[in-house]
């Protein structure tokens, strides 16, 4: 994986209207990204494509001005254009987009200003290492990174098994549990920007996955990583996570929607040649399109409501996200069944989309995580 070359990063045009922005993203997807999909599926990390998308404003429209349009629906629509061509790259857009949220609301002025500007322009590429913390807050896992208070900040140690959108010059938002000074003090967590170029960071190659190989995913090891004020996103972390959790999850729906649309395209591509026999299959393009349209309209409406930190709002977002996972799985499998043997060839986009849809359903928050969280939050609501 090549490091990011900051000299080649484009300047982002934040003045583009929505239609022009989506049109530019569509051109990048069709002309630049599409020829690379097989390489990406085999492990190529598309850093140059991501910088082009950043330059088009595709990964920052959801951010507040002057760094974005404060319109999540635009970011979601841009993600659809990319994800229906390549789900891996759509997922990386989510990683980058959610990292932008961390930076824009960070405690550190340096992160909110210099680092955010570089991030929006694509000078830097950044992701999110919050899978373990999100599961820890849901009591599925325990925190794997631990911070010790020292003069001027914290020293962090620990390992995360896999974090995406990383590379030697990349960065990500991360959370560590702070060691309590005494047993009487409640534990808390600190959120910070983790720079992979730091000598205290070791990136190790992960085992080969069945899909999503071109996502720059590594095992992350920290050995006395120092977090000073210039790297601080939130301390304590949990109130911050509560405030941005709905955006974190809702932003994933654009990626899911693109995978669903890709499945629909596979179904329609063989209607003229195989429609006479495909009409006996349970899932038909028109039916699935109707299901998608209803879900997508509801999801875009949610994105325009600027979801807050309330449990009620978060449950609505979780339900939309869960529906996106279910439709991704349904669409990808239907695309395979409609394509038949031609879709069973390993190099077929249909095969790649099957594996992408599985990742939509298991990435944090996975379907089982979502359902358990909905049950917990609705139970809390009823108890009050």
Radius of gyration over alpha carbons? Answer: 21 Å
Strand content: 5-15%
Described by the principal axes of the CA atoms, the overall outline is globular
Question: Could you spell the SSE succession in H and E letters?
Answer: HHHHHHEHEEEEEEEHHHHHHH
Task: Please report the total strand number as a whole number.
Answer: 8
User: Ends: how far apart?
Assistant: 51 Å
Low-confidence sequence ranges: 1-10
Number of helices: 14
Fill in the keyword field for this structure.
single chain, alpha+beta, eight-stranded mixed beta sheet, about 375 residues
Concise summary:
This protein has 384 residues and is of the alpha+beta class. It has 14 helices and 8 strands.
What can you tell me about this protein's structure?
The chain has 14 helices and eight strands. The longest helix has 29 residues, at 311-339. Mean pLDDT is 92; it is low at 1-10. With 384 residues, it is of the alpha+beta class. The chain is globular, with a radius of gyration of 21 Å. α8 (238-250) runs parallel beside α12 (311-339) and α9 packs antiparallel against α11. Strands 1, 2, 3, 4, 5, 6, 7 and 8 form an eight-stranded mixed beta sheet that branches. It starts with 17 loop residues before the first helix and ends with a helix. β2 (145-150) and β3 (153-163) form a beta hairpin. It has helices spanning 18-33, 37-41, 47-55, 72-83, 87-104, 109-121, 131-137, 238-250, 252-269, 271-278, 285-303, 311-339, 349-362, 367-383; strands at residues 126-128, 145-150, 153-163, 171-178, 189-195, 201-205, 218-228, 232-234.
């Amino acid at each position: 994986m090549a490091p990011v070359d900051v000299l080649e990063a484009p300047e982002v045009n934040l003045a583009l209207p929505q239609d022009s922005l989506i049109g530019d993203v569509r051109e990048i997807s069709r002309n630049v990204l599409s020829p690379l999909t097989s390489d990406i599926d085999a492990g190529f990390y598309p850093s140059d494509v991501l910088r082009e998308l950043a330059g088009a404003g595709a990964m920052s429209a959801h951010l507040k001005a002057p760094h974005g349009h404060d319109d999540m629906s635009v970011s979601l629509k841009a993600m659809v254009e990319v994800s229906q061509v390549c789900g891996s790259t759509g997922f990386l857009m989510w990683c980058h987009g959610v990292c932008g949220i961390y930076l824009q609301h960070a405690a550190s002025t340096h992160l909110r200003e210099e680092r955010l500007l570089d991030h929006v322009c694509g000078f830097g590429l950044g992701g999110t290492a919050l899978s373990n913390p999100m599961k820890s807050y849901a009591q599925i896992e325990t925190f794997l990174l631990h911070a010790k208070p020292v003069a001027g900040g914290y020293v962090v140690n620990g390992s995360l098994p896999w974090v995406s959108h990383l590379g030697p010059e990349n960065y990500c938002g991360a959370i560590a549990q702070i060691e309590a000074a005494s047993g009487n003090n409640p534990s808390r967590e600190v959120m910070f920007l983790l720079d992979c170029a730091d000598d205290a960071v070791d990136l190790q190659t992960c085992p080969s996955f069945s899909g999503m190989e071109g996502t720059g995913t590594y095992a992350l090891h920290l050995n006395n990583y120092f977090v000073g004020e210039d790297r601080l996103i939130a301390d304590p972390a949990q109130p911050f996570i509560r405030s941005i959790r709905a955006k974190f999850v809702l932003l994933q729906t654009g990626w899911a929607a693109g995978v669903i649309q890709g499945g629909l395209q596979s179904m329609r591509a063989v209607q003229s040649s195989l429609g006479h026999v495909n009409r006996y299959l349970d899932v038909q393009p028109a039916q699935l399109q109707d299901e998608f349209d209803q879900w997508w309209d509801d999801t875009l409406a949610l994105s325009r409501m600027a979801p807050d930190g309330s449990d009620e709002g978060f449950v609505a977002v979780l339900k939309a996200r869960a529906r996106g996972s279910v439709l991704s799985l349904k669409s990808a499998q239907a695309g395979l069944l409609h394509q038949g043997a031609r879709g069973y060839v390993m190099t077929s986009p249909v095969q790649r989309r099957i594996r992408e849809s599985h990742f939509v359903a298991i990435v944090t928050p996975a379907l089982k995580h979502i359902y358990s969280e909905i049950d917990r939050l609705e139970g809390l609501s009823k108890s009050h």
